[in-house]
């Protein structure tokens, strides 16, 4: 992330940091160029970042150079066909970066490539370092020059340092990575490419996601599940090993989710497979702190975290919301699209019909810079169209996944009322957001969050709604943990909701 103030002018007010994707071809080879698959993988992670994209590949030989292509914009526009063809290699990593205003800079596009004592390394990072300013000053005092404003470059530079244990037998990447992890405890998921392998790393709190997948032979793709829907045993043969921020990106290329990279785990990925080299323990045996908002909003619903599908968690949030805050209405609907699973389960739990009341225009793009007051006021109307026949004269409850500044919700309620809704109730499938995040999510300042501006019992008046209620924090935790296996180590960061930060930000 940028080591300066974050953007707080976007309409939603929430921005994920980045998406990571890495792949190593196995001995059997791949029937399509590896760079095409990395490109496809980044498309599947586009929701995690829309500012820029980058890919670095290598043939994996001891003296091979890296081929790098980077550009601003969406993945499909950032790389030409010639770019993809030129990215030759047997392994590679890619990165998509989140969208900001005023902080865009070509020099900040990842992956970063630097020369180390043992050759070139490429690094891609998702997260935000809690002690970035301290580390920057430390590196500068040691004569290290920095060329970007990204804290991800600090990680890259730390990895070039010889570990305290030394390297009498050549490169000791586990030692280098552990040394970096001792310098900063959070927040990061990393892909590090060196010669013929990729190292996949999560911080010891597991704050940001990272998972491992397996590219199956083409003739195995259609038989991955039995007629009953149960997953069949994976074929022993693999065409490639994959590491990505989310498992949703595996499906499009015929790959299968294998498991998450564990909190604090250092995983080595080569053409021969995946080996766990080390797990770095958390300070003072603290519990893990996986970002709970990955379940609420950021992740695609078809992704899997901690062994469970995101859509299933969102459905449970809707069920819990219905139990805590039922509504006497004629129909249930949603603010498209991440709240849809919660809305459908809310409706099913209360035995109320579910209907869509808003049609979303997916091609509007960013709407926060407008040339006139008239266009600014039309921001929501440009993004959503009312499906009037579905709700005219009806009492409805609309479900949203979260509310940040509150400006959009007020406009949506007004839009629905003007189009003929008799009553409009609002239910939110997560608790009020009250605190900023400094571990990888761009959340507005505390003073800009609507839950801090007005008491909850006055929220309905602010939005022009008949009632407004949020899911409780305990209800959210229950929905998230209900699907976990018995005995599974778990822990979630709820800092933006509770103010309980797992790690102190050292630069405040």
From TrEMBL:
EC number: 2.4.2.14
Metabolic or biological pathway: Purine metabolism; IMP biosynthesis via de novo pathway; N(1)-(5-phospho-D-ribosyl)glycinamide from 5-phospho-alpha-D-ribose 1-diphosphate: step 1/2
Amino acids binding Mg(2+): 338, 400-401
Glutamine amidotransferase type-2 domain ranges (all copies): 18-272
BP-aspect Gene Ontology terms: purine nucleobase biosynthetic process; purine nucleotide biosynthetic process
Source species, domain of life: Eukaryota
Top-rank EC class of the record's enzyme: transferase
The record's free-text note on cofactor binding: Binds 1 [4Fe-4S] cluster per subunit. Binds 1 Mg(2+) ion per subunit.
Protein name as it appears in the record: Amidophosphoribosyltransferase
Organism of this sequence: Biomphalaria pfeifferi
């Amino acid at each position: 992330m940028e080591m300066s103030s974050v953007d707080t002018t976007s309409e939603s007010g929430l921005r994920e940091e980045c998406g990571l994707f890495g792949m190593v071809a196995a001995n059997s080879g791949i029937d399509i160029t590896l760079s095409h698959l990395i490109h496809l993988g980044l498309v599947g992670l586009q929701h995690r970042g829309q500012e820029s994209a980058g890919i670095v590949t290598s043939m994996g030989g001891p003296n091979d150079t890296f081929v790098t292509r980077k550009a601003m914009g969406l993945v499909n526009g950032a790389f030409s066909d010639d770019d993809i063809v030129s990215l030759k290699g047997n392994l590679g990593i890619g990165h998509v970066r989140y969208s900001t205003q005023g902080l865009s800079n070509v020099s900040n596009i990842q992956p970063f490539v630097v020369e180390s004592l043992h050759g070139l390394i490429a690094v891609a990072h998702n997260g935000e370092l809690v002690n970035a300013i301290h580390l920057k000053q430390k590196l500068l005092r040691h004569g290290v020059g920095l060329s970007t404003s990204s804290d991800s470059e600090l990680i890259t530079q730390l990895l070039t340092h010889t570990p305290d244990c030394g390297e009498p037998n050549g490169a000791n990447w586990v030692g280098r990575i552990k040394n970096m992890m001792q310098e900063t405890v959070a927040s990061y998921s990393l892909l590090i490419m060196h010669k013929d392998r990729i190292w996949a790393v999560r911080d010891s709190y597991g704050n940001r996601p990272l998972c491992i997948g397996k590219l199956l032979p083409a003739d195995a793709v259609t038989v991955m599940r039995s007629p009953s829907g149960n997953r069949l045993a994976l074929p022993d043969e693999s065409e490639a090993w994959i590491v990505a921020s989310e498992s949703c990106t595996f499906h499009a290329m015929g790959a299968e989710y294998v498991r998450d990279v564990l909190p604090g785990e250092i995983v080595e990925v080569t053409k021969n497979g995946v080996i766990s080299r080390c797990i770095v323990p958390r300070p003072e045996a603290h519990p893990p702190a996986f970002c709970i908002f990955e379940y609420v909003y950021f992740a695609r619903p078809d992704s899997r975290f901690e062994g469970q599908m995101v859509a299933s968690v969102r459905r449970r949030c809707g069920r819990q919301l219905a139990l805590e805050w039922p509504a006497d209405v004629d129909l249930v609907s949603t603010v498209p699209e991440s709240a849809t699973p919660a809305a459908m389960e809310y409706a099913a739990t209360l035995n109320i019909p579910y209907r869509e009341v808003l049609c979303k225009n997916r091609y509007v793009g960013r709407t926060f810079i407008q040339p006139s007051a008239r266009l600014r006021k039309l921001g929501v109307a440009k993004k959503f169209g009312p499906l009037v026949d579905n709700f005219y004269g009806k009492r409805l409850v609309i479900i949203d996944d979260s509310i940040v500044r509150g400006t959009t919700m007020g406009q949506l309620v007004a839009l629905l009322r003007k189009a003929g809704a008799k009553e409009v109730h609002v239910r939110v499938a997560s608790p009020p957001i009250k605190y900023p995040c400094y571990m990888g999510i761009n959340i507005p300042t505390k003073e800009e969050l609507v839950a801090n501006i007005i008491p909850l019992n006055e929220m309905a008046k602010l939005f022009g709604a008949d009632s407004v209620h949020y899911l409780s924090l305990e209800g959210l935790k229950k929905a998230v943990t209900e699907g976990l296996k018995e005995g599974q180590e778990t822990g979630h960061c709820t800092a933006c909701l509770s103010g309980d930060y797992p790690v102190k930000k050292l630069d405040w």
